[in-house]
Here is the input.
Amino acid sequence: MDENRVEGTVKEFAGKAQGAAGDLLGDSKTSGDGRLKEAAGQAQEYYGAAADQLRGLSEELTDRIHETPLLAVLGAVGLGYLIGRLSSR
Here is the structure.
């Protein structure tokens, strides 16, 4: 699990607590800061989840390349040819 997911969850929880405390005390600055911290925590958590997914896809791709290296080389050549054709226009 990506460390950003854990840190994001902690920030989100802390932000919720700070926002609730600000609401309870009637302090709009504390409440607003808490909501911002909560949003930042959610964003960091989503970033960590995306990083986990990309890491999994990368591992799967690496495994497939090791299983069928000839197909991987042919795919790379084909992709290089396609990029060359598109960029020459």
User: Anything to note?
Assistant: The radius of gyration is 23 Å.
